[in-house]
Amino acid sequence: MRSALVALVACQVGLHACVQGARLAAPLSVLRLGHSEWAVGLVMTMFALFPAIFAIPAGRLADRHGYHLPLRIAAGLSLAGALLAASVPHLIALCAAAALCGAGSGFGMIAIQRTASRFARDEADRLRVFSWIALAPAVAGLFGPMMAGVLIDHLGFSAAFAALALLPFATLVIAQAVPHESRAPVSALNRKQPSAWGLLRLPSFRRLLLVNWLVSASWDVHGFALPILGVERGFSASALGAVLAAYAVASMSVRVVIPFVAERLPRRHLLAGALFITCLVFVLYPLLQSAWAMALCAATLGLALGAIQPTILATLHQVTPRERHGEALAFRSMTVHAWMTAMPLLFGAIGASAGAAVLFWVMAAALGLGGLQARRIDTDNGAPGRREEHPQQEERTCS
């Protein structure tokens, strides 16, 4: 299944690079049209709002139909969004394009992550698989905005959005390398599904959602508060760029290393350990005066948060029923995107009233409490209704 895994990574890069490129191009286009910063905020909110609204239906669709139908819908949404932005330079059209591209990326992420778990032979292999999958957003975050920015400067916004539309189109082609899952019996498809909210009855799943929220909030606090703290210290833009680059390089590096050492990682304590390390870094950040010291902290943070994302995904598939993995991934996606819609206002209010240092320390306290909860996540016995997953037990026919 190595070629199928490569195809999954490439598909996520395509969808994620499209939305990341659009996240750069859309606000710049709004400003070029003469609209205010409020309009920029409206467009950026649309990127996160619709993935949160449609996450549960996307998860159920993946559980019922496997990979290919949700992936086609995801690529179609992203393609339509990019083409709409390329052809209609208007605020309403850009809002709709942001909603379509965001929903497409969210749909695709759920289907891709659910399918990736089917390629794992055991727990260590699951961590390895999700480490490769976790590389896709990092690669896309570099490629998508860079491509959009260069094309905007040389050919204009319409050309940039048109080029971004090629990425989901390529995703549709590459997706054919992923094997089809066997169709579920018609009786199973027609059976009334239990409420997705019933997953919250699983204590370990609730704790894992809390850990996932803390990780997402940590990324956002770091990206929001670090520039403010750097300006207070009198750092130059290049110094702040070096600090953020140290975080990005460490985060990508640890995801490359994990697949080769997955068998030796203490997975039971990895979640709690990463949260406690992040807590310590956030305590230290406001006390540092040197850009080099902050870069060292940023690299440490990148290692911790870079390792924790594939661990969260692997653990999620251990603590939830196999037949509801899509819904579980949808809950994770919904909480992240819902948080992204509220984050700028909340952080802005705290930063304006109390300062960046207080924001770091409040987050550190939350991370410490989250680390204690992470230690209580039970993955030994799995979730009710879960059976061991091995590729030889999968019934697939190759496309």
UniProtKB/TrEMBL annotation:
Subcellular location: Cell membrane
Chief localization: membrane
Transmembrane domains' residue ranges: 37-57, 69-85, 91-112, 132-152, 158-178, 208-229, 235-258, 270-287, 293-316, 353-372
Domain Major facilitator superfamily (MFS) profile: 1-382
Domain of life assignment: Bacteria
Membrane topology, from the record: Multi-pass membrane protein
Gene3D superfamilies membership: MFS general substrate transporter like domains (1.20.1250.20)
The keyword Transmembrane helix appears for this protein: yes
Annotated signal peptide: none
Keywords: Cell membrane, Membrane, Transmembrane, Transmembrane helix
Entries under InterPro entries matching the protein: MFS, MFS_dom, MFS_Efflux_Transporters, MFS_trans_sf
Region (Disordered): 378-399
Entries under PROSITE patterns matching the protein: MFS
Protein name according to UniProt: MFS transporter
Record organism: Aromatoleum petrolei
